[in-house]
Structures are given as structure tokens and as C-alpha cells.
Amino acid sequence: MAVLLQFDFPFPGPFGEEMTQALDGLAHSIAAEPGFLWKIWTENAAEQMAGGIYLFDTAESAAAYAQKHSERLAGFGITGIRAKTFAINEGLSKITRAPGC
Amino acid sequence: MAVLLQFDFPFPGPFGEEMTQALDGLAHSIAAEPGFLWKIWTENAAEQMAGGIYLFDTAESAAAYAQKHSERLAGFGITGIRAKTFAINEGLSKITRAPGC
């Protein structure tokens, strides 16, 4: 069953179009991760935060990616990383028109 | 521009199919909120957590819902509620096949 992985962390930028340019290569790399289905990239310039909402095909692939990505972010000097995994309640999500589940 | 709202909180259950049954009415109510676009319902029985990933059409509609839902959860006796709003980086999200953005 697919697993939702929720990441957020303090982030000094860049945000917006500059973020898109800076992380284009990383995005293509993430798109090729084992078990990866999709990621929504999140950012909040006012609160200096960023993160992502991911779907993976199994708990194992989500856990492997969470460890890899946490280590990569730490390598960028980022601290305060929060990573949580969840199952999706499909019945309720259908009622609320959830995409991609 | 659409705003992603990320909610999570300690939750004692019910989970899974029982959660679907118990919260069916709430889900239909949420689907009719002003500015609401979609919600993915998240749950983690092992860690006793639940939450949701929402998309709203404006920051104002997301903020109004976040306040209403936080008060509702508090009314259920839930504490430790975490609600964060983010913009979506659309360029990066397209590369990673994000749905519904």
C-alpha cells in the first residue's frame, strides 16, 4: 500500500523561481528514486521553511528515501528536519476529492 | 495562488475502515468548505497520529479553515496540533509528477 511521506524543515532559500532553477537537477534525481510515485514541493518564504509531500509505493521505499534525504539535507547544513510517514485513508480522501491517491 | 495546508496531531483512533465510518459526515462537511479544493487524509496507527494535506484556493480560505479545524480538534480533546501553510513550487512539482497542483 502506498505511503505518504511528509518532510519539512527550516530553509533560508532560495524560494520561488530561483528555487526552481537551483533544484532542477535534484528534482530529476528524486523522480528516479526507487518506489517514488510523486512529490509536491512546499515552500514558505515568510516563515523560512520548505519541505515536501511525497507518495511512495511501499513503507520500505519511503523509509529508505527518508533516510537518504535527511542525510542530504543535513549535508546542506539544515537542522530541525521533521519527517513523518502516514497511511492514506482512501475512503475519506475520495469524499474530499484527493488527487493521486 | 493555491495554498497547501499541512495538519498533523496525536490521535488515539479509530483508524482505517473504522475511521472512514466515523468521519464520513465530517469529510462531506469539509468538502463543502469555502475555497476548499482537496484533502488527503493521513493516519498512522503505530505512532497514534493523524492529519491531512489540503489544498485551498487562497491564503485567506486556508487560514480561516485552519482556525476552524484547530478549534474543532481542540473540542475533541486533541492537543499538540501542528498546522503549517506553504506555497507550492510548481516548476519542481511538475518534474516530480505531483498530482492536483
What does the secondary structure layout of this molecule look like, with pairings?
The structure is a homodimer of 101-residue chains.
Chain A: E1 3-10, H1 16-22, H2 24-31, E2 36-44, E3 49-56, H3 59-75, E4 82-88, H4 90-95
Antiparallel strand pairs in A: 1-3, 1-4, 2-3
Give a structural overview.
The structure is a homodimer of 101-residue chains. With 101 residues, chain A is of the alpha+beta class. Chain A has a domain at 12-38 and 60-81: 2-Layer Sandwich (Alpha-Beta Plaits), CATH 3.30.70.100. In chain A, 38% of the residues lie in helices and 32% in strands. Chain A has four helices and four strands; from the N terminus they run E-H-H-E-E-H-E-H. A four-stranded antiparallel β-sheet of chain A has the order 2-3-1-4, covered by helices on one side. Chain A starts with a strand and ends in a 6-residue tail after the last helix. The mean pLDDT of chain A is 97. Chain A binds chain B through residues 4, 6, 8, 15-17, 19-20, 23-24, 27-28, 30-31, 36-45, 47, 49-51, 53, 84-89, 91-93, 95-101, and chain B through 4, 6, 8, 15-17, 19-20, 23-24, 27-28, 30-31, 36-45, 47, 49-51, 53, 84-89, 91-93, 95-101.
Give descriptors for this structure.
homodimer, 101 residues, alpha+beta, Alpha-Beta Plaits, 4-stranded antiparallel beta sheet, 4 helices
